[in-house]
Structure formats: structure tokens, C-alpha cells
Amino acid sequence: MKPDLPCLLALLCLLHSDAASVWGTTAPFTHFPTTASPSFLTSDFSSSSTSTSGSGWSSSSSKSQSLSNFTGSKDDHGTCQCSVILPDTTFPVERVERLEIIAQTVTKKFEKELSIVKEYVQLISVYEKKLSNLTVRIEIMEKDTISYTELDFELIKIEVKEMEKLIKQLKVGFVGSSVIVDQLEVEIRNMTVLVEKLETLDKNNVLAIRRQILALKEKLKECEDSKVENLPAVPPPPAPGSCAHGGVVNISRPVMIRLNWRGFSYKYGAWGRDYSPQHPGKGLYWVAPLNTDGRYLEYYRLYNTLDDLLLYTNAQQNRINYGQGGGTVVYKNNMYVNWYGSRNIAKVNLTTNRVALTRTLPDAAYDNRFSYANVGWQDIDFAVDENGLWVTYATEASTGNMVISKLNDTTLEVLNTWHTKQYKPSVTNTFMVCGVLYATRTLNTRTEEIFYYYDTNTGKEGKLNIVMQKMQENLQSINYHPFEQKLFVYNDGYLLNYDLVFQQIPQ
Questions:
Q1: Are the C-beta atoms of 332 and 346 separated by less than 8 Å?
Q2: Among 21-25, 141-145, 200-204, 266-270, which stretch is predicted with the lowest mean pLDDT?
Q3: Contacts from 178-187 at CB under 8 Å and sequence distance 24+?
Q4: Where are the beta strands (DSSP E) in 158-268?
Q5: Which helix (H) or strand (E) holds 327?
Q6: Mean pLDDT of 147-169
Q7: SS3 state of residue 222
């Protein structure tokens, strides 16, 4: 018998079994009537195979033996022949296809559930580590004699509660019971009980420390009260916009308002608040960053309130094409700028954004000839104080030393001029308060110093030593607001405020 006959017979048996299961029958695989339409399969077998085969084949050449649904015989030449009778019922293809679709659906659901299990396994490993860390921390707290605050316990409680939530999620997600999840749940429950016990034991220590702190606070308050009683009466600070003081003697730490509206790359510029003696507390805020070249003033924004500036809302943005440098100021609803590439000064009406007036500043050096240290294109620097509009610059005749001029804010004419002995390029910036020019210089990347003054009221100049903290390395502009008595500083793109402290004059 040839070797592929057993495979054929096995296949036929399987087909019959599958068809029977699909049809819902359990009848045995029996011989079909010879009247059915048979399909004959004829195979040749070798004589060696038939001699060893015992699966229903007759040794007689003429005798035919019937087995189930096939018959086999051997002819005179030793060739085996078989006939197989197949059922005439149609094979159920549609049911097999439905079975395939159901199998695919089950496979997808299994893969989805498997991915969820993998995620849970990862979460379990993470929280196992957290649980281990908590165990170590609590062991330290048990052994140590240090008193822990309620905050320490609250932090641990929060972490334990987070793990409890995860365990509940895992138990819902898992079908049946998981040994790992159950163990974690028990450990977390034990951890909660242990933390509560430790907190109870530590309450006495916490209360004792709190009593000591309260006692110390009371003693400190008594010392402060006694100190205040023995101090002489301090005169009140000068009224806003008043010059009833002896000048600047100190300055507060900087208050960062925010980054300029164009971004960190715009490191050069100026900002401040409009000042008008008629309406001293109602001026709008303005921010004027220079382009990234540090020279060209093209855009500026106006804000009605400080809240609008902080939130960058309700801003009025204007464009000009002639501004240069960061020496800009705003006074009585007009912006004063150095005209690009010249010694001209310009007055810009903020309501219309139109140039109201231009005039040449006599003999003023320009185009980066005598700018400030670390700040380019600020040869001409405007300032505003209680007395009005000022401008600081240098000339070739002054050999680079600072020159101060009082301007008529309506006509831009120079009303008076003072010559100093301070070299302008050695100064980082200047501002005016009550007719006194104050100059700064760099001490290091985080500290500036107000080191020089010139009083136009008396013609005197001198040295100061007022340390001024800063957020970034370079100060690009400083503007003073007389009513608020604050400095508005542009520091490498950041907008800063400083409060000035004045020498009080005894009443």
C-alpha cells in the first residue's frame, strides 16, 4: 500500500466528523447505500504494503471486504483498489465562515484584555517600589526619636490613599482573584494602620514643640513692642509727587512684573508709566521693546491698567518707523524718542500715533558714539521727574562726559544745561528725581550700584553707595515715576519695579 493512503482515509474521517458536528448529529460513520451517487477514488498499492497491512484488506484477489463507507480489493496483478462513498449533502460553508468571524472577534478581545493586564502589571511594579520606599521611611520614623510634623504624616497618607485607589482599580479590572493584588491590598491596609499609630504617638512631641514656638513668638513680640516704644518718632514719607526729602538713600529689592510682550529675545527696550502733574495717578502703562538688533524701536504697546499689562489684555499696539535706542519716556500722553540715525528728538502723540514735533538736540553725539556701558544706541536718554522733562547725553566738546538738559515739553527747546564730570560710557544707566541725576554701574552679574549723583538745584555732584539687586545681567533703561516713587527698569527683556527710599527731613 502506498504511504499517502492513510492520510486520505484520515481526512475523510475528519470531514465526516466535522459535518456531523455542524449538522448537529451524533450518528456513527457508517456505510452509505450503494444507490447513492458515489465518488470513486482509485489508488495503486505495492505488494509489500498489502502484505503487512491489516486494516480491512482481504488477501484474496477476488474477495471484496466492506469497511464502513469504503470497499477494497486486490486484482490478479496484486494491485489494490478502493471505492469511497461520500454523502450527497452539501458542505456547510456559511457556518464555517461564521465560525471564522467569531474566532477573529474572540482573538481581538483576548489581545485587548492581554494589553490591559500588561498595563496593570507595570502599575503593580511601580507601586511595589513606592510601597517599599514607604516601608523604609516608616521604619526610620519608628526607630528615630525626632518629632515629625503633621505635614510628614499627611504626605505619607496621601501616597497610601493613592495606592489604595489603584488596588481597587486593579481588583475591578482583574477577572477572578490575583494573589499579587490581594497581598498588596493587605500590605497597604497594614501601612495605613501603622501610620495612624505613629501619628498618635507623635502628637505629644508636636504639641510640645508648638507650645515652645508660641512662647518664643510672644517673647519676640514683647521685644519688638518695647523697641518701638523707645524709638523716636519717624517722619512720614514724602507725599507722592513731592520733593520734601533729602534725596534717595536706599532702594528695595526688585519686583518682577513679567517678561516683555515680544519675548525673551527682545532684551533691549524701555517701559514705564505716563506721568502728568494734572492727573498724577491715572497714567497708562507703556512697553517699548527694541527689535532684536537692539537699536530700532518699531512697535510699542499701551495698557490702561497694570492688570491689563500682567494679562496682556486690552492692549493698544502701535507702530513707528523712526525710533532708536531705549532712552524713551512718556510724559503727558506724549512719547519722546531719539530719531533714528540722527541727533534729532521727536514728540509722538499717543492718541494719534503721529509725530507732533521734531527738533535737533544741539551738539549731541549720536549713533552709538557715547552710549551707556553694555547698552548700545542710547546716546540720547530722556527722563521725567517731579519738575518735568529732561534729557541726558554727551557731546564732543564734553569729551564724552554727561550733559544734562532741561527741556520744554511743548516745544522741545533746551531751557537749561549742566555739564558733569562723569564719563557717560562708564555708566550703565541714569534716572532723575527732583532735579537730581542718579547714575548706576555694574558690580557683578546680579548687583548694580547707584554710585553717582548730580544735583541741578545746587550744581553739586558726588559719590553714593546704594546697592541695587537685579534679575538679569544688564539694565537697558531706568525710568522714574514721581507719583508712585518707583523705578521702572527694563532688565534683559524683563520688566522690573523698585521702590525708592528717601532721606526724611525732620518736621
A1: no
A2: 21-25
A3: 180/124, 181/124, 184/124, 184/127, 184/128, 184/131, 187/131
A4: 248-251, 255-259
A5: strand 316-331
A6: 63
A7: helix
Calculate the alpha carbon distances from 24 to 18, 21, 92 in Å: 10, 5, 12
Helix pair angle (93-143, 150-173), 10° resolution? 160
The answer to whether the CB of 430 falls within 8 A of the CB of 439 is: yes
Lowest mean pLDDT among 50-64, 98-112, 245-259, 285-299: 50-64
Q: Enumerate the H helices of 329-437 as residue ranges.
A: none
Which amino acid type is present at position 81?
Q
d(CA 111, CA 104): 11
**Overall average pLDDT of the 225-244 stretch:** 70
Residues 6+ positions from 159 with CB-CB distance below 8 Å: 130, 134
The backbone region for 341, taken as left when phi is positive above 0, alpha when psi lies in -120 to 50, beta otherwise, is left
Question: Is there a contact between 189 and 182 (Cβ–Cβ < 8 Å)?
Answer: no
Are 209 and 147 contacting, i.e. CB atoms less than 8 angstroms apart?
Answer: yes
Are the beta carbons of 248 and 433 closer than 8 angstroms?
yes
DSSP string, 31-75: PPPTTS--B-------HHHHHH--SS--SSSS--EEETTEEEEE-
Q: State the pairing for strand pair 401-407/429-433.
A: unpaired
Per-residue pLDDT, 39: 39
- pLDDT tens-digit readout, 161-217: 766 666 666 666 655 556 666 666 666 666 666 666 665 655 555 555 566 667 666
Indicate if the pLDDT at residue 338 is higher than 80: yes
User: CA 315 from chain center: how many Å?
Assistant: 25
